[in-house]
Structures are given as C-alpha cells and as structure tokens.
Write a structure and sequence with these properties.
Blueprint lengths: L2 H23 L3 H6 L1 H17 L13 E3 L13 E3 L5 H20 L9 E3 L8 E3 H27 L18
Antiparallel strand pairs: 1-2, 3-4
Helix pairs in contact: 1-4, 1-5, 3-4, 3-5
Protein name: DinB family protein
Pfam families: DinB_2 (PF12867)
Organism: Limnovirga soli
C-alpha cells in the first residue's frame, strides 16, 4: 500500500478512535459510574477495537479481562456476551483505547502489498469472520464510529453535552487524562 493511502486510512481511522477516547474522557465521572449502558458500550467498543486489530485473532489477549456469559447471566445493560470481570475505571478504559490507537497506527504504517493479502480469520464456522486486512480495518473503523455515536447520543440526551467532531487523527485533544 502506498504511503499516501496509508496516511488517508490512518487519518480517518485515527479520527474515529480519537472521538471514542474523547467521549469517554469527557463523560462526567458520576455518569460513567452510574450509567451502565454507557459503560458497557464503552467497554465493548474498547475490547473489539483491539480484537479486530489483532491478526491473527487467535493471538488476542485483552488488557481488560472479561468472561463470556449466557443471556440469562448478563446484566440487562450489557450489549453482548462479553462481560467485564470487574467494573473498570474510566482511566483504565482510556488507557486501553490509547494503546489500541497506537497499535492501529503501527498496523496501518506496516501495510504492504504483500501483507495486505493476509486475512483476519476467526475460524472455519459459517459465521466466523474471514476478511482481508483492509476490509477488517474498515469494518473496525465503522464499528468504532457506530458505538462512538451511541455514546455521544447518550451524553446529548441525558446531559445535553455535545462532543467535538474530529476531521482527522490528532486534531482533537485526547491527552487530558
């Protein structure tokens, strides 16, 4: 992949991650601690950002451990079956997001015509993901932005708090914590 294309992909993916970090950073502490729907969306987004950046996915080892739980054992606010082993602090979530941001930047920088042929392959079951590297990156960016929008909507609806838009990676301040 040529340098200019890598820069474009990073600018947009990095902006998506920056917006996720920003919404978590700017969430009032008491809201973060009390609104479990916000918390579970933030946790889910954080875990899957890292997971989809892990190639091959069998090498995924989350910084914030979780347990997969059956529907009957999940909190009603949870959005999937990955339940954190404890309630992680806002700082822990932000730190993990920042680590994944750097992992993403390095992955995009390392893209070559040769390694673009590699695949993100979960397994051999019919619903397992099996995507080329560029596609999993775009999928991950869309997933990140989708949940960032949900978090922004919760803050807007519940607290009338508006978050900043990021045009490109690095154009909003995410180093407040």
């Amino acid at each position: 992949m040529d340098k200019s294309t890598k820069k474009i992909v990073w600018n947009q993916f990095g902006a998506s991650i920056d917006m996720l970090i920003n919404v978590v950073l700017n969430c009032p502490d008491n809201y973060f601690e009390q609104n479990l729907r916000f918390y579970y969306i933030a946790f889910h987004s954080t875990i899957f950002l890292d997971y989809y950046l892990t190639i091959p996915p069998k090498d995924f080892f989350p910084s914030l451990p979780f347990t997969q739980k059956e529907q009957k054992d999940r909190p009603k606010e949870a959005i999937d079956d990955l339940i954190p082993d404890k309630i992680y602090s806002k700082q822990e979530i932000v730190d993990y997001l920042k680590q994944s941001r750097e992992k993403c930047r390095l992955l995009i920088e390392s893209l070559t015509e040769e390694n673009l042929k590699e695949r993100f392959k979960e397994g051999d079951e019919p619903n397992d993901m099996n995507y080329p590297i560029l596609e999993i990156l775009l999928y991950n960016m869309r997933h990140t932005q989708h949940h960032t929008a949900q978090l922004n909507m919760l803050l807007r609806q519940d607290l009338d708090k508006h978050m900043e838009w990021s045009f490109r990676a690095g154009d909003i301040q995410i180093d407040s914590m």
